[in-house]
Amino acid sequence: MGADEIRSQGFNLNELFRDVTYEIDYYQRDYTWGEEEVRTLLRDLCDSFRSWSGDVAYRRRPHTAPEYFLGPFVYHEPEKGRRFLVDGQQRFVTLHLLFLQLRLWAKEVEDSHTLDQLNRVITPDGKHFSVGITDHDPVLRAISEGRKYETGAGDSLSRRNLWARSRQLESQLVEELDAEELHHFTEWLLKRVVLVGIRAAGRDHGYRMFETMNDRGARLTAVDLLKSHLLSNVGAGEEQLNTQWQEMLRELSTDRDDPQAASRFIKAYLLARCAREGDADDRRQITTNLNVWVRHNATHLGLITGRPDRFLEFVQDLLDSARLYRPFLAATRTLKKDGDRLETVFFNERNGLGAQSVAVLAAIDPCDQPTAAKDKARLVAAYIDRWYALRILQDLPVQSADADSLIHTELVPLLRKCRTVDEVASALAGLVANEGGAIRDAVTLGLRGNNGPQIRYLLARATAYVEDACRRSYEVLDYLDAEKFHIEHLWANHHHRVRPEIPDKVVFRSLRNQLGGLGLLLGRENSSLNDLPLSEKTAVYVRGNILLGIMAPKYDLRNPVLREFIKTHQLDKLLRPFGAGDTMTSVVQTRQDLYLRLFEHIWEPRRLGLPVTTPPPAPNGTASTAPVRRPQRRTATRGRRTQVAQMIQAQVLKAGTRIVLAYRSAEHWATIDEDGGIILAATGGTPYGRVDEAGAVARGTKTCQGMNEWHVEDETGQRISLRTVRDRAVDAGLL
Fold first, then answer.
1. CA-to-CA distance for 691 and 689, rounded, in angstroms?
2. Nearest 5°: phi and psi at 638?
3. Is the pLDDT of residue 313 over 70?
4. Which 3 state secondary structure label does DSSP give 606?
5. E strand or H helix at 489
6. Separation CA 507–CA 500 (nearest Å)
């Protein structure tokens, strides 16, 4: 290469990480990618993989499938096999975390071929990580070995963020993929995902390129290009439009470290008020090229050349909407306990439901008064929060794609028609009235697979609700922080202690992980308890929150506020102490009913401002003695996208089909319900959303390749795996 010669080359991930290590120079920043960037990257990868895997021709001839372009990166290479990243660190580190999580999964399911592929790109020499950033090493070692990394006061931002993003990837992977897709996804990821490397001549040249990309003026963004287009059409109104535009940007500057705030707002506004209903292409173009979409849809938007007033009106509407949107935007950044009552806005944002902004802007008219706009935003956010909680309780997916479907398919068309606060409340109440299932159907729900963040959210809201009602100080953000508060199992993982009562290990595992067997406990307290029996733990519980402390004898004797809360909510049979004579089954069932009753209060429609008539609660707070119930079928699809759900929808399998899993000389039976859920015969109750999770509970392992291990019996008694059933249906053109 010449002194300043720049060369480029395309690499798939297998080529990119094999026999090469990557380092960073001193001028590079920390690893700062947040939850949204990582979620978007993995979702895009999984969506592209599903498009590829759903095409039979591509599966048979993978090399003919389109490659997925992940973008460019810049590097210099002082010696063969050793590269320094100039630009691209965030993507490289995230990909490396993804490889580590996939490898842990491959170890669990004993997939030696996938394990070998991942080993080659994670540690080229068998010892050092391919992304060899020294500061990251302790965290990467912990992840690689499948153990928890204990963050400390001296840890860098990179280390803390690495651990948080790794846990996020672990959870999201299980939500996105079935265990049997692990091998194919890894193959696709390594061979069909491509980056283009731009090679600098050397270190100094790389630094100059870094300076050029970061210090010599920002590139024009889509927002800048949109402004330029609008300015070019207003003639003498340029100064007025520019003033409006700058005022709009100031309204959106609640966080000066967020340069994307204006872009997100304008996209949300266009999606909420301008995109054609049901037009997926509109949504895609606005999301990727908002300025191009505006130019190409000028007539639809009323932006007529020669009518500068129309362009000024368009920007004025943006400005007026930004002013009304500002309190909502602030509420997405900070949890505020004030008169606006926009706490659920923050919760939704934290739970990955950022698309709520589109629904809010669909409900808000630019001419609204500020109070009316806040009331509308509160109603919309509360409804979405309730939707999220109910999805968790019914063990339905709560990924971004599910929220997007809710927002764009149901809420936006509905809310666009509303003018007043009452109309918004009535429209959302109508959706609530048409829901299928009920909170109390979650009779056996608890920790399943990697739904830990969702279960933590339910526990945090219930814990905070009781603390608040009893006028005790609390911080719900602490409850949501996995480092500060741990999810506490009331029973240690020792089946032998309760074998006389519960002989079946599957029932024990299910009971232990149910909501009724869980609580939130300060991390330092949880660490001190080890494997003590419940009767000895309650002495520690009394120092914590009410939901755990109440289990100790005489906890409420000197707490009149708590007693009044119990009386008002008719919880005397549920929110109570337990003694030595109470069995594990009775305690878990009672506390499961307690949690579900609390959830009914927290997400009661009328409490949220939605005027829906609901049946009265059971009298006297008595624990439910009815047989195990199954959730009712929703009037619309419940949203499961699993292969089993697809086979039910295509009538390849029938609702009520019995399936069996044999493991270590034991047979475990289950039933497939009408929505593709899996109901274990041993436990009944809330269906498992995925065969992998149901199989893992039956086996007592972390993971399970459910499509391979669950079988149906044909009329001759021969057992056929669900995967074989699926493959035969594909060959027959039924799927």
1. 7
2. -75, -10
3. yes
4. coil
5. strand 485-489
6. 13
Hey, what amino acid is at 417? K
SS (H, E, C) 670-716: EEECCCCCEEECCCCCCCECCHHHHHHHHHCCCCCCHHHHCEEECCC
The alpha carbon of 331 is separated from its chain's Cα centroid by a whole number of angstroms, namely 19
Residue 306, phi then psi, degrees to nearest 5:
90, -5
Beta strands 678-680 and 518-522: pairing type?
Answer: unpaired
Q: Which of 79-83, 244-248, 270-274, 630-634 has the lowest mean pLDDT?
A: 630-634
Cα–Cα distance for residue pair 85/133, rounded to 1 Å: 11
- What's the pTM? 0.82
595, 638, 644, 675, 694 from 689: Cα distances, Å: 21, 11, 9, 9, 8
3-state secondary structure of 656: coil
b/e per residue, 320-349, with b = 16+ CB within 10 A? bbbbbbbbbbbbbeebeeeebbbbbbbbbb
- Angle in degrees, 0-180, between the axes of helices 308-333 and 343-350, rounded to the nearest 10: 90
First to last CA, the chain: 53
* pLDDT the model gives residue 510: 94
Query: Which residues have CB under 8 Å from 298's CB, separation 6+?
Result: 304, 305
Handedness of CA 323, 325, 330, 333 (dihedral sign): negative
- The percentage of residues in the chain with a pLDDT greater than 90, rounded to a whole number, is 57
Cβ-count burial 9-35 (b if 16+ within 10 Å, e if not): eebbbbbbbbebbbbbeeeeeebebeb
Which residue is associated with the tokens 């100059």?
208
Contact status, residue 88 vs residue 26, Cβ threshold 8 Å: no
Q: Quote the CA–CA distance of 689 and 449 in Å, as a whole number.
A: 10
Q: Tell me the angle at which helices 89-108 and 112-122 cross, rounded to the nearest 10 degrees.
A: 150
- Exposed e or buried b per residue across 590-622, where buried means at least 16 C-beta atoms within 10 angstroms of its C-beta: bbbbbbbbbbbbbbebeebbbebeeeebbeebe
Q: What is the mean pLDDT of residues 248-257?
A: 77
Query: Can you tell me the distance from the alpha carbon of 459 to that of 632, in angstroms, rounded to the nearest whole number?
Result: 24
- The answer to whether 670 touches 679, Cβ cutoff 8 Å, is yes
What are the tokens at 410? 């149901």
SS3 581: coil
Nearest in space to 460 (alpha carbons), one of 478, 440, 484: 478
Give the position of tokens 């996020």. 168
- Return the number of other C-beta atoms located less than 10 Å from residue 461's C-beta: 21
Task: Check the CA dihedral 88-91-97-99 and report its sign.
Answer: negative
- Token pair of 728 as six digits: 């035969």
Q: 3-17, 352-366, 700-714: which range is least confident on average?
A: 3-17
Q: Which two tokens stand for residue 217?
A: 């003026």
Q: Which residue type is seen at 547?
A: L
* 98 SS3 class: helix
φ and ψ at 271, to 5 degrees?
-65, -35
Amino acid identity, residue 727?
D
Cα 424 to Cα 359, 377, 542, distances in angstroms: 11, 10, 43
**466 contacts 545 by C-beta, under 8 angstroms:** yes
pLDDT band at 159 (very low <50, low <70, confident <90, very high): confident
Q: Going by C-beta distance under 8 Å and a sequence separation of 6 or more, which residues neighbour residue 664?
A: 699
Between CA 706 and CA 699 the distance in angstroms is 11
Closest C-alpha to 393, from 347, 451, 336, 344: 451
d(CA 360, CA 317): 15
